[in-house]
Amino acid sequence: MSLISQDGPAATASWEEVATVAAARLREQPIVLVPSLSDLIPSDEPPASVSPIQAAIAQMQPPSDSALLGLLLPASLITSRRHQGLRAVMTRQWQPAGVVYSTGALPELHASEQLVLLYLRARSAQSRVHAFRVPRTGDMGDLEKELTQLLALPAGATPHGYVMSPPWAADVNWRFDPSKAAKPQLADRGSDATTTSDRPGRTFGDLFERVNTARKEAFPHLTAEAPGAVRLLRFRDFSGTGTLVSAEETDAVWAAVPPERQLQAGDIVMQSVLHESTTRGPAVAVIDQEDLPAALEGSMNLAFRLKQPVEEHYLRLLAAYLNSPVLQGYAVGATIRRIGWKSLETLPLPAPDEAVANALDDLDAVRQRTLSWHGEANLLRQSTFTGRDHEAARQRIITEGRMLRLRVEAAAQLDDSGYIYRTTLPYPIAMRWRNVEAKASIDSAPGPAYQAALDTAEILFCFCALVAAALTHHEGVTIPRMAAIRSRLSSGGTAPGFGDWVAVLQELPSAIKHLGLPTNHPLTEFASFGIDQDVLDARVRLYALRNDESHIRRADELDLPGVLQTALADLRFLLERALFLADLPLVHVTSVRWDSLRKSASVEYHRLIGDHPIVPISTSEQHDPGLEVGSLYIIDSERRFHLLRPFLMRQLCQRCRAWSTFHIDRLEKQEAVLKSLEHGHSLKDSATRGALQHVGLLEAPRAKGTDEG
C-alpha cells in the first residue's frame, strides 16, 4: 500500500500500518491510498468478513473537516451489493466527496477493468458528491478543464460528470448515474453570481410556452417557389453557432404547414437530443424575420415562444444560456440523452444583463472572425497547386497569404501578457509597464528596472484608488481614508502615498456595502480587487521592497537580479488581476455637441488606452447633456460616462510638454500642487482648488469670525 501526497509519493506501508501513517499525513495535506496491484485485481471468491481495506478504513478518523482522503479501488468495491459492508464502514465517519471512474486506466490490468478514485471527507463537511467518468477517447487537456469546471459547480452536470445531493448511503450502489444529478437552484439575490434570477422563483416555464412542431411526413412537400411553401427546419439545419443553416447551403425541405404550426420572429428553437460526447448544450437559435416562413420538425427539436415581451439583449442571453452545459443536468437517457419540455419548465433563468449579453456577442463575433480566417487559409492552401503556372501560384500564396499571416501574428501577441498590459490598460499604467519592460531587457543594469517596477505598482494602486474615490463621491459615499488624506493635505502634511491608496481600496467594500449596487457597476470590480487576498499578498511584498528603498535598505548588487525577478512576478500578477480596467476605458472628452430635438449628444473623445498618448478620436452618442469638454471619464460596460475630475485630471505638463494625468499631491503656500502619474512631474494649479474642496479632497475655508468668541 502506497501513500501519495501533493508533493509525490509519501510512504509505503502494510494494510495493518496504513491507518497510523495516513492519520499523521492527513493532518498536513490530502493523501491518496494506492493499493498494490494484487489488491486491484477483483477476486471471484466471496469477500472475507472484514477485508484489509475495510479494517484500515475503520481505524482511520478524519483529523479535521477539511481532511481529504483518496482511495484508488476496483469499481466493484463501491458498486456491488456484496461489498456493502465496506461502504458502511466508509460512511460511518467519512462521506464521499468525489469519485472519478476510469476504464482501462492501468495497462497492467485488463482493458475492461474499471477503477475508481474515491475521495472522502469528514461526515460533518459538505454533503455534495462530484462524480466524473473519464471517456475512452478525448483530449486530456479538455477533460481536465471540464473536471475543474465540474468541481466548481454546486449542482448540475457537465458532459462527463454531475453533482448529486444528498450523498450516497451505504445501502445503495455507487454507480455512475447522471440521472441523479442535483438540479441547479436559484441563486440568492445577494449573491455575486452573474446568473442570478431577476425575481425569486422565475423559471423557463414562467416566461415561455411550447410551440407546436410539425412532422416531416404529415404535410405535402412543395418546392421553395410554390405558393404557401414553408421551410421545415430539421435537426441538421442547426449550425451550432446560434444561427440556422441557410436554405441555399443545404437540401432544405419545404411543405404546406398550417399557420398554427408556423414559427414567429423571436421564437427560440433548439435540438432536444444531446450526445454523451458533447462539450456544450444543445444547438439553439433565435428565429429572425428573414428565417420566415418556417416551422420546426419535432422529432428531435423543441420550439418556445415568449409569453410576454423582453428586451432583445435578454433574448440573446437566454439563447446563450440554453446553449451552455447547464442543460446537461436536465437531459435523461444514457448514450442518447433527451431534453423534455417538462424538465425545462423548472429551469431557473438568469437575470437580464445587457453587459453579459454584449460580452457573449463579442465572443461569438471573435469565433466567427476566426472561422472566417480559417476558411480563407484553407481555400488559399487548396488552390495553390491547382493551376499549371506554378510561379503564379507561388506569388499568389505569398501575397494573398501575407494578410492572413499578419493577422495571426497580431493575434499571437495576445498570448503574451506583457503585450496585453501595454495595449489594453489605461495609459498611465500601460506607459509605466512599457518602461519596466524596456529597462528589464538590459541585463547588465537591473537597478532602473527594479525601481520602475516598484513605481508601477504604486501607480496602479493610486489610479484604482482615485477612480474608486471619484465613483463613490458620485454615489454620495465617503471612504474613511479619503477623509484622512483630506485632513493631511489641508494642513500641509505629507503627500498621500502607496499605503494610502491601498487603504482606500481595502475600505471600499464596507463603504459601498449599503448601496446595493448591481454586480456590473465599476465599484464592485474595484472592491473585489482591493480585498483579494492574493492581491494583498503581492502588494505587501512590493510595499516592503519600496519601503526598503525609501529607507536606504536597498538590495545588494549581487542579490538585485533575483529581487528584480521576484518584483516583476508580483507586478505581473497585480496587472493580471487589474485587467478589469481594460473594460473601463479611460477617456478624455474633446467635444460635446448637444441636439435639443433628439435629446442626444454627439461626443468625441480620446481613448487613453495603451502605452502611447497620441490616439485617434472616437465618437459616441450619449443622452447626458452634462458631459464636460476637457475632463477625464471612464466608460462602463453599459457605455455610461463617469466623471473623474478633480480626482484625476489631464493637463499639459509644463516640464516635459506632454499631456499627462495629474492628481493632487500637496498644498504649497495654499496653492494646489498636482503630480503626474506618468512621470511624477509636478504642476502648480490654483484653478483646481475650488473643485478639490467641492469633492472633499481639501477642506473648505472657514468663514471669517467663525472662531471669535
Give your account of this protein's structure.
35% of the residues lie in helices and 20% in strands. It is of the alpha+beta class and 709 residues long. It folds into four domains: 2-180, no CATH class; 204-352, DNA methylase specificity domains (Adenine-n6-DNA-methyltransferase TaqI, Chain A, domain 2); 357-415; 416-709, no CATH class. A hairpin with a 2-residue loop joins strand 8 and strand 9 (161-164). Helix 3 packs parallel to helix 5, helix 14 packs across helix 18 and helix 15 packs across helix 16. The longest helix is centred in the middle third of the chain and has 30 residues, at 354-383.
Summarize the structure in short.
The chain has 709 residues and is an alpha+beta fold.
List the helices and strands and how they pair.
Blueprint: E1 2-5, E2 8-12, H1 18-26, E3 31-34, H2 37-40, H3 52-59, E4 69-74, H4 76-79, H5 84-93, E5 94-103, E6 114-122, E7 129-134, H6 140-152, E8 156-158, E9 161-164, H7 204-207, E10 208-210, E11 221-222, E12 230-233, E13 253-255, E14 268-271, E15 273-275, E16 284-286, E17 294-296, E18 301-306, H8 312-322, E19 331-332, E20 336-339, H9 341-345, H10 354-383, H11 390-412, H12 417-424, H13 427-440, H14 446-474, H15 480-490, H16 498-512, H17 522-531, H18 533-550, H19 560-577, E21 586-595, E22 600-607, E23 617-622, E24 632-635, E25 641-643, E26 649-652, E27 659-668, E28 671-676, E29 682-684, H20 689-694
